[in-house]
Amino acid sequence: MENKNQTIIIGLLVLIVGLLLGYFFGANNMPHRGFFSNESMYEEMEEHMGGYYEDEIVNGDGELMHMMDEMMLIGRGQTGDAYEEAWLRGMIVHHLGAIRMSENLLQQTDRLELVQLANNIIASQSAEVEQMKGWLQTWFNEN
């Protein structure tokens, strides 16, 4: 019985590894499709993205395309208050990421223009995060 369980576990692990490899190699071979393989879903995403996939910086980097895909899923299928709350939560996370990236940049660069930009992003997006957190508390009784 123990050998049968081990065989099942090994089989499942092989299946999972195969699926993961298939996903990563398959997703990288889909030009301009990023995370989505469904053509109509891609077209809808591109319509909402205003052509961001056409941007050579986003288009040239699979990780950036995946990030854009993930951001566009926030609130999908929701309306009204539920959409607004999901949007605020997503924007808070997005802003916190930009703040963290800017803090990391400040540790890596001496370019005055980048230092100024990073400091501006930190200041403005920190204020916006606090504003959005306040709205979540006021409108949705969130902490």
Keywords:
143 residues; mainly alpha; Ferritin; 6 helices; extended
The gist of it:
The chain is mainly alpha-helical and 143 residues long.
Spatial gap, N to C terminus: 51 Å
Q: What CATH first level of the largest domain would be assigned?
A: Mainly Alpha
What is the correct CATH architecture of the largest domain? Up-down Bundle
Fourth CATH level, the homologous superfamily of the largest domain = Ferritin, core subunit, four-helix bundle
Q: How many structural domains in the coordinates?
A: 2
Taking Cα atoms only, what radius of gyration do you get, to the nearest Å? Answer: 21 Å
Mean pLDDT across all amino acids: 76
Order of helices and strands: HHHHHH
Helix content: over 70%
Low-confidence spans: 27-38
Q: Largest sheet, if any?
A: none
Q: Which class of secondary structure composition applies to the elements?
A: mainly alpha
Which oligomeric state applies? single chain
Provide structural commentary.
Helix 5 runs antiparallel to helix 6 (112-140). The chain starts with a helix and ends with a helix. The protein folds into two domains: 1-30; 38-140, Up-down Bundle (Ferritin), CATH 1.20.1260. Helix content is 78%, strand content 0%. The protein is extended, with a radius of gyration of 21 Å. The chain is mainly alpha-helical.
